[in-house]
Design goal:
Helix content: 40-55%
Largest sheet: 3 strands, antiparallel
Shape: elongated
Mean pLDDT: 78
Structural class: mainly alpha
Strand order of the largest sheet: 9-10-11
Low-confidence stretches: 1-46, 232-237, 253-262
Strand content: 5-15%
Distance between the termini: 50 Å
């Protein structure tokens, strides 16, 4: 643009360029730009006025040129007449040369030749004038195009302004529509929720009315029963807490014979048959009368339990053979003598239940892991096997001894499996595992560890019932605060599998996966316990749904094999090229997805390629030159001069850092340069052959020789794919899952303007390949 301005200014001021090579030559005509873009910034104050002035100047210049051309034409005619006269004079002089002095004639001939040369110069000037006239005509035509372009520019700018305004209005309308749609959905959901709540309130109101009526009836029945009890004088002046409890129970429960007459105690209501299990059984009026008449409580005392803090009945100390078999506290034994606290049987049993269900996760190094129920004590109960627990259960008088013993056996199997796992899990990891698997049980994605369905009661070929086997343990990663995570054990056998099975479209296997719903639903179900575990335990890689937006119909094992095959195919050029195997997708997988679903070796190699790809652009990075080795590394020796003799860390191959060749043993770099420059007569021939028969790989810059195959090249060192003729990136020429892109070839490449693709012909060079194709009738 600056050239255009300078040319216009020189024309307006009548200036001529200083470098005119010929006297009288016209100044060069400035060229107008071939195209004017709408976005170009002009600095003219009044563009239209300047254009008009420019046109008038061109017309004036044109008239001047025409006048000069006429003058030159007249001068040319005069020169031609003079030339004819001179020629005649030359002819006369030639005749005189023979008779006159030769020197004088030669001088006159020289002057005539100069005159002829001047005439030739004038003719050249005339031709220049004609060329300038033609250039002025072209300049006027371009100026007209420029004026038309300026008008089109103004119209286009106005149109673009309207388009931008309409687009803004459209965007605002679309945003408003989205807001209204969101409000509609929100208010619709809120209205439905309110309707459900109203319906629920109505049902609760109806239930409350029925409950009030029932309570009124119960109150009437209780009042009648109280009157009957008072009349029978069951409650006399000698009240005890137990009698008060019984009295309250009688007031709150009015139905008679709840437990039936089968119970021996209820049949006789004899104090001799009263046990801890009968203390809170419901009695009717007649049964209460019988028990009150024969009940002697002199052998009992009331003690508060140190765990639940409730008053409990206990035998008086020193009573050798008590008549009442009522004692809610366990006696002293090797399992219960850890502290002086009083713990009722009910609290002891509840503590055992909790320990058998939860406490087995931690303290794997000890055998007696069952602890005292008192929080301030927590000493061991000295139970290291089934016999000790069975003894304690008999002391407690529990009714579920078999269930507790089976739970203990299964807990011991879980602990043994965790202890055998390497590496060991910390107590923190074990507690996190307990939290995770309890959550999975709660949301219905895992079976309870003590579910009877896992109890095998069928004998094997030896006639014995096999011991419980907890199955395989997998170490999975659970996120913690910040960016930290922790590896925890997961018992895979207890995961709930969905039915019917899901079929993989690749391997066609039917797999029973965990029921997760969509990827978004699975994320919501695992809220608070996210981590790679939630995707790693699944048989189908549904995490890809979050980005691919299509149904995942291939299993994780097939995806793993696909990633491995792609890595082997692309080699060092695999960075950012591993993709989803779905035929209609082809999305490039992220670093985290490859880490999650790739095999350990696959991800390690991919991560190495990423690092090498990043280092490849550094000046002190070198690839290993040994064939078959794909390693590369940085060579740096701090601030000291670096030794050019370097070794590959992978295969110990020796190379020269300066020349990027195998190490020139016995020669310094200077000596090697000298031999190449002077002492090796074949060096230049070698360099010429390399130049004519090889090309540098666009990926690693290594020289590559073309073989007999097609023109789709893959570098054996870095696995970069490209077109041999123009070195264009093959992933742009033939993107995955898309059609062949002819325009991706570089300008000048024969494949850019030819229907023949690089994979359809083969040969060491293009000429040979085309001849071979013609011979084959292609």
């Amino acid at each position: 643009m600056s050239r255009l301005r300078r040319s216009i200014a020189s024309l307006l001021h009548g200036k001529k360029p200083a470098d005119t090579s010929m006297s009288g030559a016209l100044p060069p005509v400035p060229e107008l730009p071939t195209s004017i873009t709408l976005n170009e910034d002009y600095e003219f104050v009044d563009e239209q006025a300047l254009q008009q002035a420019f046109v008038e100047s061109l017309h004036e210049r044109n008239r001047t040129l025409e006048w000069e051309r006429d003058a030159e034409k007249l001068a040319r005619q005069m020169v031609e007449e003079s030339l004819r006269a001179k020629m005649a004079e030359v002819d006369g002089l030639l005749l005189k040369v023979q008779a006159g002095p030769a020197e004088e004639n030669r001088e006159r001939i020289r002057r005539l030749e100069l005159s002829i040369h001047d005439i030739g110069d004038k003719k050249r000037v005339e031709r220049d004038v004609e060329e300038r006239v033609l250039q002025v005509g072209e300049l006027e035509a371009r100026l007209n195009e420029y004026q038309i372009g300026s008008s089109a520019k103004a119209a286009a700018e106005e149109h673009m302004a309207r388009v931008v305004k309409l687009q803004k209005e459209k965007s605002q309308v679309e945003k408003r529509v989205k807001v209204l749609q969101a409000d509609e959905v929100h208010f619709g959901a809120e209205w439905e929720e309110r309707a459900r709540e109203l319906k629920k309130v109505r049902l609760q109101n109806r239930e409350l009315r029925g409950l009030v009526a029932a309570l009124n009836q119960e109150v009437k029945n209780a009042e009648a029963q109280m009157r009957e009890i008072k009349a029978s004088r069951v409650l006399d002046a000698s009240l005890t807490p137990r009698i008060m409890v019984v009295s309250k129970l009688l007031r709150e429960h009015t139905r008679e014979g709840v437990h039936g007459s089968d119970d021996a105690f209820l049949q006789s209501c004899s104090p001799r048959l009263l046990t801890n299990q009968n203390l809170d059984i419901q009695l009717n009026t007649n049964q209460a009368k019988v028990l009150m008449e024969d009940l002697a409580v002199g052998e009992l005392i009331i003690i508060a339990c140190d765990v639940c803090l409730l008053p409990r009945l206990a035998s008086k100390p020193g009573v050798a053979r008590p008549r009442l078999r009522v004692d809610e506290f366990i006696g002293r034994s090797r399992h219960t003598s850890c502290c002086s606290k009083s713990v009722c049987r009910q609290c002891f049993l509840q503590s055992l239940d909790k320990a058998l269900e939860v406490d087995w996760w931690v303290n794997l190094g000890v055998t007696d892991w069952l602890r005292c129920p008192v929080s301030s004590c927590e000493a061991s109960l000295n139970i290291g096997h089934n016999a000790g627990l069975e003894t304690l259960l008999h002391q407690l008088g529990g009714e579920d001894t078999a269930r507790h013993l089976e739970m203990y056996e299964r807990a011991e199997a879980f602990r043994a499996a965790l202890s055998r796992h390497l590496p060991d899990f910390s107590n923190e990891a074990l507690l996190a595992a307990a939290c995770l698997q309890n959550h999975l049980v709660t949301i219905g994605r895992m079976h309870n560890f003590f579910d009877p369905m896992f109890t095998n009661r069928i004998p094997d070929e030896t006639g014995r019932v096999p011991s419980f086997n907890p199955g395989k343990i997998r170490a999975v990663s659970v996120d913690q605060d910040g960016d930290n995570s922790i590896d925890v054990p997961l018992f895979i056998s207890f995961l709930r599998r969905q039915e019917p099975p899901k079929s993989c479209i690749v391997c066609t296997e039917n797999l029973f996966d965990i029921h997760t719903g969509s990827a978004e639903e699975w994320l919501e179900l695992c809220e608070g316990l996210h981590g790679t575990w939630m995707w790693g335990i699944l048989l189908f890689p549904i995490k890809l749904e979050l980005e691919c937006r299509h149904t995942i119909d291939f299993c994780t094992a097939c995806l793993r094999s696909h990633l491995k095959a792609q890595l082997e195919q692309h080699g060092r050029g695999a960075s950012g090229r591993l993709s989803c195997p779905s035929a209609d997708c082809g999305r490039k997988l992220s670093y985290q997805e490859i880490q999650l679903y790739g095999e350990r070796d696959t991800f390690t190699q991919y991560d190495k390629y990423l690092q090498l790809d990043a280092l490849n652009h550094l000046p002190n990075f070198r690839w290993c030159l040994r064939p078959g080795c794909s390693s590369g590394q940085l060579y740096d020796d701090d601030d000291r001069p670096m030794d050019p003799h370097m070794y590959c860390d992978e295969c110990r191959f020796e190379m020269c850092f300066v020349h990027s060749v195998p190490w020139h043993a016995g020669q310094t770099c200077a000596q090697y340069d000298s031999v190449r420059a002077h002492g090796d007569p074949e060096f230049q021939q070698t360099q010429d052959w390399i130049k004519n028969n090889t090309k540098p790989c666009p990926g690693c810059k290594e020289n590559i020789q073309k073989g007999e195959y097609c023109f789709h090249m893959t570098c054996t060192r870095c696995r970069y794919e490209f077109c041999w003729e123009c070195l264009a990136d093959w992933k742009l020429i033939a993107p995955e899952n898309t059609t062949y892109n002819l325009e991706a070839h570089k300008r000048g490449c024969p494949f850019r303007t030819n229907e023949v693709t690089p994979t359809q012909i083969s040969g060491t060079n293009l000429q040979e390949a085309l001849r071979r194709r013609r011979r084959n009738g292609g």
